Every structure is written in structure tokens, then in C-alpha cells.
Amino acid sequence: MNLWNTIRVTTIGAGLLAAAGLAQPLQAQTETETVRERVVVTLPSGKRIVRVVERQVPVTRPATPAPPADPFAAPDGDANGSDSGDGGSNARNSEGEIDPRIVEWIGWYRASDMKADANGDGRVTAADFNAFLKLLNGDDDTTGNGDDSTDGSTGGGGDDDKSNNGGGDDGDDTNGDGDNGDNGDNGDDGAGDGDDGSDGGDAGSDGVDTSDAFWTELTPSSDSLVFYVAETGSDSNDGLSPNRPLRTVSEGLRRLRNGKPDWLLLRRGDVFSDTLGQWEKSGRAIDEKMVVGAYGEGPRPVLSTGTGKAMWMIKNDRRAHLAFVSLELRPGVKYQREAITLIAGGVEDVLFEDIKISGYALGVAMNGSLKDIAFRRCVIVDNAGWTRSQALYSEGVDGLLVEQCMFDRNGWRPDLGRDSTAGIFAHNVYLQRGPDGDIVFRDNFTARASSHGIQARNGGDIVGNVFWQNPISILYGNEGIRDVETPASGDVDDNVVLEGVDMNTDAPRGWGVQIQNAGGVSFSRNIIANSRVDGGYGLMLFTSKPADNEDLLVADNVIDDFGTGLRIDIDDVVSTTVRGNVLTRSRQSPPLVVHRGATRGGVSYDGNRYWHRQSNRPFEFDRRWVSLRDWRSAVEPQGRRVRLPGNSGDPYVNGSATLTDYARSIGFADDRALVNAMREQRRGNWDERLTPGAISEYFREAFTLRVDQ
After folding, report:
1. Which residues on adjacent β-strands are paired with residue 35?
2. Cα–Cα distance for residue pair 331/360, rounded to 1 Å
3. 80 Cβ contact list (under 8 Å, min separation 6)
4. 379-381 vs 345-358, strand pairing mode
5. For residue 562, which of 596, 595, 527 has the smallest C-alpha distance?
């Protein structure tokens, strides 16, 4: 676990304790008061519950005048004083001591121990804490997911499937005509009835999350100087109070002390014709960062940066322990420069959170000796104008976290159209080769890129993301030469890839995922569905240059109506297991699987399920079209046909689901209206329904098989 992840886990742990009323003050306060907050929780089933929690906040502080305890806090989202929720858990015993079981759970969480997986979704995330509290209070119905299939796969499959496939597959099914019926859904599990034991109502029909639990906690130190800047201020003021603000950002930056945990706060709703310039200062420590952020209520303060960059670090001097939060960066003249450039050495522990960047030629460019850089809940959209425009470019960063960010329509100009401006070298996210440090790209939404939703040349963990209308959603690995480039490694799990498109009329694409020169990679529980073009591929394991994919696991994925579902070139594969996947096709003629080579090579197929509405020869093996019977004989004896309800219809709950369907399910007119709302996400205006987690849950239900297999 790298430095940033250690910090993040510690922060979440502190936030979870705070939610249970267990956190201790970070420093001595002369006086505190109790405030009540509504915490809205989305369960894995999509159900939502509300809790009302109490916490102590300081009202006075010694030493230099400082801002409120949380100057970034949103307005109280429970303005009507509603007492919904169950008031939290019984976290303390009768003598006021912390329940040791909570302390034990936090230890598991920090260690990523699966014993902390209280909601049973197979992952250790912050959402498990609420499920754990319910278990602590004696409420066993914590998951509410209504799908307790014993095979553990996304679509009801897996290598432990007990079904005997009574449907047959060309009349040659020797496994029998019966179905044991013991591997499917273990009952309805109480899903959807009430609020999982919570008496707090439905969390509000608008789904707005007023909790601060999952924002990074930043608190001034006792000796921090906190400067305020407003359009109506004056640089002759001391700037140490919202009532005596400075006028210019540059003057506020000048007053920050290098090596100190000083803060510079810009008034929300104001527009400043200024930049952060060449950044040369540091904070004191990991938990005592120098902060540039916002105060007050309303939209983010705007830095209108003219024809220049918003901020740059281009020297090798040490700069560390910095946080830039709740700012909007706009150029005065579009499509000319980068917004943020970090091409330097000695830069470490930098957080960008709740930042919106739009209209530049390149959103963020990073290259150099950088360590532990994080982007959280940022919105980076509409950056274009160069043949190599990107929202985010990173090379050589050791310890990069990109989490719950939104990347949309970068690399091409919608006013001029794809045909004239979209190109192969422009992407939403480009993670170039670099050191073997941790890369984590999780719970992001990346959409409508010029070319790739993400290029992860160096590998890393690409997990829990949603990709929409990209020509190529994920490229994982490099075009390396054997014995020269290190194969990419990590996990590509739990992603949803939707509605692939062509790059332009001269460059057809519609590719879901391409993996090349990778080793030790899990590609599991992904959904790749409903391409808008008939060509392309769902998943490809091949490269145009001599390189190998080795020790790959392709398991429990759903690939539906996305060109050729799976393409494997055995010359590019040393050892790969393809197990428990569901590949289906309801329209046109592309095959379900293209296997290039006269033998299985280094590929092992086991227990996959197939269905093609229009072709009785849905496989290409050794450049020959073959039936399922022939495929089983030559390649996969355990391959089976997907059983349909009544031998007709859609095999899934809703196999035609698109982002528009999800948008309408929560009250938006269509996918464009939904994405426009996602672009406006910010602290103080955060809707959990507009997050990749909520979108993913909808599509996981939609692509559940209707018949136990």
C-alpha cells in the first residue's frame, strides 16, 4: 500500500468513527457544540437509507483567527429539522467506552481484510461500515441485494455452476436433461421491502447526499494562518477574516508561509482573473497540508486564467503536503494551454479534490519524479484543440489515485464535430509508462473521448468505473517488445462499458477493452454491452507488436451486443484462463468468439455460456465458422448455451438497457440530461444517484440472467 492509500484509509477510518460518534478532537478546543447531520447511504442493491448522526464541532479556536472547523462544508441538507433515521448505532457501551468490535472492524478495514466486507459484495469499501453497524445492532438484513447466487458471478455464472443445462445445445448435450436447480438465487432475501430496518424514510426523492463522510477531512492546525480572498476585498486588509478579505489571489499566495499549514480560501461564486502561477511552497506534514480552497456557499470560485496556465511546477525543488480543493479553472481563451502542469522533481503528497477544469488544450499534464498524487471527485471536461489533447496525462508518477472523477468529451471539439477534430492520439485519460508504483483508477465516469476512455500503459488497478460512448474504452498494457518492456499488472475488475462508438467516419472502432503485454491480470465481473456500432470487439487479447499476455484470468464477465464479443490471438497469449463468462448477441452477425490459431494454445476455456440469436455458427476457430457443438468438441467441453425463458426473448432482465434508461429511472429526460447533471457535481451539490456506483448497480441488475443456468 503506497503512502497516499495509507493516508486515505486512515482518513476514511476517522470519518467512519466520526459517523458513529467515536472520533476524538484533532486538537484541544476551548468550546464545542453538537451538530446533527443526515448521512445518506446507497446499498449494493441500489436501496438508500438515512441516518442522523451527531458530532462535536469547535466554535472557538486559540491562536490566529481561523475559519470554521470545516470551511468547505455544504449547507445543512436537512433544513426542515426532520428527525429521520435511526440515530446511528449503539457504538458505546453503558459506561461510555467504545465498542471493541468497532475498533476491530476498523483494523480489518485498514488492512483490506475481507472480514470487513459486511455487506457481502466481495469488496472492502467504506459502504461496508453502515452494514457493519446494522449487524452490530442485530439487524441481519444488511445487503438488500436480492441476489445471493452461489456461483458469485455477475450474470449468474461461474466455475462452480451446478446446473446440468437441461436445454441442450444442438442435441448433443450428454449432461442430461434435468436441472438440479440448487445454484440459483437463494430466495428473494427481503430485497426492496422497507429500508433494511432503518426507520428513516427513503433518503429524499432527489437522492442528494448531504454527508461529508467521503470527502477528505482537512483541518487547520493551531498555528495555521488562514487568508480569505473576495472580489470585494482589498489587498490592504490583513485577510485573516471573511470580514477583512484580500482582493487578489496573488497577494494571498504571497502571504502563505513555506513549510507551514497555511490556508488560502477564495469566496464561492466569485471570479478572479488570476492564476496560481509557478508553485514553490509546501505544507508541514501529511496531516498538516497547505490548502488552497473555498469558503462560503454556492458554486466553486473561478480562476479565469487568460491565455496562460492555471498552475505549474517545473523546478526540482521539493514541494509537498498540498491540497487544492473546490476550485474551477477556466481559460480566458479556449484550447491554448494546459490548466495544470507538474513536470518536476521532488513533488510529493498533493491532493486535487472537487476541482473543475474545462476549455484548455490539456487539462492536467504530469511527468517527473512525482509521488503520491491524488485526484478525487474532480470534473475535467471539454479540453481539446491539440492533436494530443487529454483530460489527464500522467507519466512517471509513483502512487497515483484517481477516484470518483468525471471525464467527458475531451480531445475533440463538439462545435466542430468528431469528423474534423477527433483523433487517435487524444484521450480522456492517458497513463503512460513509468515506475512500478501503485496506480489506482476507481469509481470514475469516463465518456465520449476522442479515442480512449483510458490508456493504462503501465497497468494498475482499473476498478469500478463506468465508460460510455468511447471509441475504445480501456487499453491496458503497452506495445512492448519481449524481454524489453515489463508487462503491465494489476486488476481490471467491476467496470461497466456501454455504447461504444466510432472515432469518426474514417476510423471505425467500437472497441470495449484491449489487453496487451500484461501479466498477472484479473479481468473479472465487468459488463461490456450495447455498442452503438456493429463492428469492433468487446474484449481483445492481442497486440500488433510482439508481446505476450501471460497469467491472465478472464472470469465472470458479461459481454453482450458489442461487436465480436471476445477475440484472442494465441500468438499473443502465453497462459490465460477464460472462465464463467456470458457472451451473447441479439443482433447482426459478428461472432461471439474469434480464436485465432489451430489449437487452444495457452488459452483454457471453462464453463462459459453463449447465445446468438441469428447465427448457428457463432464461433470462429482457426479462421473457420463453427457451431457450439464443434466448439465444444475442439475447444471447450464445458461450454454451454444460455437458457432462455420459454426458449425465447431476452436472456437478461433488461439486455437492451442504455444510459438513457438509467437516466429516466431517476427522473431525467435522457442520457444527455444525466451527463449534464453529472458535470455539475460538486461539494454542497452532490447527488449519489449520479455516481458510477449507482449507475453500475443499475446495469448489474439489468444484466442478470432471467433463468438459472
Report:
1. 55
2. 6
3. none
4. parallel
5. 527
Three-class secondary structure of residue 257 per DSSP? coil
CA dist., res. 164 & res. 155, Å (int): 17
Task: List all residues 6 or more positions away from 49 whose beta carbon is below 8 Å from its beta carbon.
Answer: 40, 41, 43, 85, 130, 195, 196, 198, 200, 203
**Closest-CA residue to 301 (of 269, 265, 341, 257):** 269
| Phi, psi (degrees; rounded to nearest 5) at 541 | -115, 85
Task: Provide the 10 A C-beta neighbour count for residue 248.
Answer: 16
Walking along the chain (709 residues) 10 residues at a time, the average pLDDT comes out as 41 42 39 52 48 49 40 36 37 53 72 72 69 63 36 34 36 34 33 31 39 82 98 98 98 98 98 96 97 97 96 91 98 94 92 98 93 97 96 93 97 94 95 77 97 94 97 89 74 97 92 93 97 93 74 96 94 91 88 91 95 92 94 96 84 96 97 98 95 97 91
Q: Which residues pair with residue 375 across a beta bridge?
A: 352, 402
According to the 3-state scheme, what is the secondary structure of 434-449? Answer: CCCCCEEEECCEEECC
Cα end-to-end span (Å), the chain? 39
Report the amino acid identity of residue 391: A
Residue in 642, 663, 637, 654 with CA at minimum distance from that of residue 700? 654
> What are the grid coordinates assigned to 328, written together?
474551477
pTM, 2 dp? 0.73
Q: What are the residues facing 92 on neighbouring strands?
A: 98
Burial of 254 (0-12, 13-18, 19+ CB in 10 A): exposed
Q: What does the block give as the cell for 590?
A: 459478428
Looking at this protein, which amino acid is placed at residue 283? G
**Which grid cell is 468?**
460510455
Residue 450, class by beta-carbon neighbours within 10 Å (0-12 exposed, 13-18 middle, 19+ buried)? buried
Task: In whole angstroms, give the CA distance from residue 118 to residue 133.
Answer: 9
- Alpha-carbon distance 570 to 430, whole Å? 27
pLDDT in tens, 85-100: 333 334 444 444 556 7
Residues 156, 620, 623: CA angle, nearest 5 degrees: 160
d(CA 120, CA 147): 11
The length of the chain in residues reads: 709
Is 325 exposed, middle or buried (CB count within 10 Å of its CB: 0-12, 13-18, 19+)?
Answer: buried
